[in-house]
Design a protein that fits this description.
Layout (H helix, E strand, L loop, with lengths): L10 E12 L2 E12 L3 E5 L6 H8 L5 E7 L2 E2 L5 H6 L2 E4 L11 H7 L7 H14 L1 H5 L10 H13 L5 E5 L7 H18 L2 E5 L3 H7 L2 E6 L2 E7 H6 L1 H8 L6
Parallel strand pairs: 3-8, 3-9, 6-7, 7-8
Antiparallel strand pairs: 1-2, 1-4, 4-5, 9-10
Helix pairs in contact: 3-6
Family: Belongs to the ABC transporter superfamily.
Organism: Nocardia alba
GO molecular function, one term: branched-chain amino acid transmembrane transporter activity
Amino acid sequence: MSEHWPTADNAFLTVTDLRAGYGAAKVLHGVSFSVEQGTVCAILGPNGAGKTTLLRALCGMIKVRGSLVLDGDEVSGRAPESMARLGVAHVPEGRGTFAPLTVEENLRLGAYPRRDRAAVDTDLRRVYDYFPILRDKQRDAAGGMSGGQQQMLAIGRALMLRPRLLLLDEPSLGLSPLVTQELFGIVATINQEERTTVIVVEQNAHLALGIAQQAHVLETGRIVLSGTAAQIRADEQVTRSYLGIQVKP
């Protein structure tokens, strides 16, 4: 295994026998995995596999059974507000920006759980450095921006939390290939410079594996394949079987 494969000693997030769903509909059936601090973990799989439900479970949006341990603390059952205060930031599919508010107002909303107000302005400048287009449009209404710009805004707003764990749900959805490449490059830079742990759910397996150190494939609510990103990329037959796509360019 690669040095990036988490063990009991270096795991930042440990998920054990996680079960979740919506009412009587069970979606996750005993998911277990761990993530090393400061790495990127890709969650791959076909539509309906439970990827979005997994991220919602990790940020406290839905009730779960099983264990979630974050940096040594059991956090399963905590509300989203509590998870945010622990440094878990969730960028949902569809971005979820507040269209009538300005770009800067959206970004400042991301810092609402924080108490270190003196540092918020510093972090705002840091987000503008990552996404210069947001600085240019800081006084514009978020709803008037392109899809790619709104996705950058959604990630920027999450960064205003100063997250220890960043959850990204289909960040490339609806974006052009050029914008998608740019976005994933920025996410990789954030991971490397800030040492922010990232879990990314993504249909574009090639891009996700390009920035990840480890990956898990979900199918019908269960992990059916795990390995380093390099191992997953190398196993074309298995990836085609589970993802229905070619991961190599």
